[in-house]
């Protein structure tokens, strides 16, 4: 599956159709036509490269991929709605668009964006989701103001600025009765079980593989997933171990997991904000400071 390119409008349409089981009911709640909602769903399926619904004669039924996406969509939409609930309905002379490259970051940025909107009520904030490479390209093209994620310094164009927002430890997630809980966390113990981690072209996977290589421990069998939430979804269903960013465990879809710190094994993950050097810094710096936490009391 190709990395997803999600936006909140498509996610909301998908969520309503999944819950209502009807395009017509979802369309009524969204104040759209049935064909418009159907188009949103098909575009989302095209973006993800998977079928989310089985089109049955009298109803729509979620596929396995659709069931997994619904769990994540509900978490994302709930966090976003909470973050923007304080935004007033009056005129909004300032507009900012922000892309988040990992759905697990929503739980981190939601309270900070809520505080920002309280301080700057005349700002209209658009929160989207893209992969890191897509988001950086959109910022470079002037179609996004800011993107938040993990980026290789060598890949950042010269006309873009990059600032560290926060760091997150790595965490191990597994079934509560998994043998690794009793044996303890070490690279050699981890090597005895399949690892659930992100695909090869991500910084997390690179860090994990290099750590095994540096310590001369053979990298075990790997189950690749698209993001940390997908890893947490798979952890209860497999005799495997998920390696995730600890920040993503705050919105974990399953509470029947054991979470163990992997801080002694892997270096912390650094998350950055990227924006154009010649952008309107008067508008960008307040929200950037809110994300970094400089506005905290």
Describe the protein:
By secondary structure, this protein is an alpha/beta fold. It is globular. The protein has a five-stranded mixed sheet, with helices on both faces. It has a five-stranded mixed sheet with strand order 9-8-10-7-11. A two-stranded antiparallel ribbon has the order 1-2. Helix 1 crosses helix 4 (64-84) and helix 2 (23-30) packs across helix 3. It folds into three domains: 8-75, Winged helix-like DNA-binding domain superfamily/Winged helix DNA-binding domain (Arc Repressor Mutant, subunit A, Orthogonal Bundle), CATH 1.10.10.10; 93-167 and 270-292, D-Maltodextrin-Binding Protein, domain 2 (3-Layer(aba) Sandwich), CATH 3.40.190.10; 170-267, D-Maltodextrin-Binding Protein, domain 2 (3-Layer(aba) Sandwich). Mean pLDDT is 83; it is low at 86-92. Helix 5 (106-119) links the parallel strand 3 (94-100) and strand 4 (123-129). It is built from eleven helices and twelve strands. The longest helix is centred in the first third of the chain and has 21 residues, at 64-84.
Stretches with pLDDT under 50, minimum 5 residues: 86-92
Q: Helix count, per DSSP?
A: 11
Summarize model confidence as the mean pLDDT: 83
Percentage beta strand? 15-25%
Overall geometric form: globular
Tell me the name of the CATH homologous superfamily of the largest domain.
Periplasmic binding protein-like II
SSE string, helices as H and strands as E: HHHEEHEHEHEEEHHEHEHEEEH
Helix content: 40-55%
Structural class of the helix and strand makeup?
alpha/beta
What order do the strands of the largest sheet run in, or round the barrel if closed? Answer: 4-3-5-12-6
The total tally of domains equals 3
